[in-house]
Amino acid sequence: MSVALEAKGLTKEFKGFVAVNNVDLKVEQGAIHALIGPNGAGKTTCFNLLTKFLQPTRGTIIYKGRDITRLKPAEIARLGMVRSFQISAVFPDLTVLQNVRVALQRARGESYDFWRSERILSRYNAQAEAHIADVGLGEFLHHRAAELSYGRKRALEIATTLALDPEMLLLDEPMAGMAQEDVSRISDLIRRIAQNRTILMVEHNLSVVADLSDRITVLARGEVLAEGDYASVSKSPAVIDAYIGASHD
Questions:
Q1: Tens digit of pLDDT for each residue in 61-101?
Q2: Fold of 1-80+168-249
Q3: Can you say how many angstroms the Cα of residue 244 is from the centroid of all Cα atoms in its chain?
Q4: Within the chain, which residue ranges are assigned CATH 3.40.50.300?
Q5: Global pTM?
């Protein structure tokens, strides 16, 4: 397989504290790749470096053969690499339908102008409703996002992310705060959308990781501790020690 995203020697220091240390990472095209580790392992920092919300102290990031180390997040998104966040990022006072229409318009280079006629805006409805149905929010179409439960807000964020039609999707703890029925539905959705996309996700739910991931990178104290499929990394003594040790910190 070809490599969609690669990091070489990725390092981030904060005033002498090394949060990410010399991380090498390869995410293959079309794979679901999970980034896991105990609390404080550097997962979120690494994720923010890869998506350019943080600038690395050292190292190189390559996306589809192009060096993106110095690019900005908006430039990365235009190249087809789009991320979600740990904290749900939706417009609370817009309806579910309007939130997804915003993303659809942005994907086409348009701004969301509230003074446009409903006839013009409604041309996006069918596609928006399809994305909304995919994440199980069809019955909440005209509800304000602020009225949704936390899990449903996360589902809405995934719908808006999909509306941007990314080639590579980076999900930051997509199952956080979700009830089990929501976890099952979003897991099924991730599996479906991975059929023609590359996915990198940070996820604490190890049963989700085991079920979905083709490959897993384990971080501990900012460094790569192990890499492989779930069967191999879950049996690694170093990984077991890192998780047990973290539970006693």
A1: 999 999 999 999 889 988 999 887 655 568 889 999 999 98
A2: Rossmann fold (3.40.50)
A3: 26
A4: 1-80+168-249
A5: 0.85
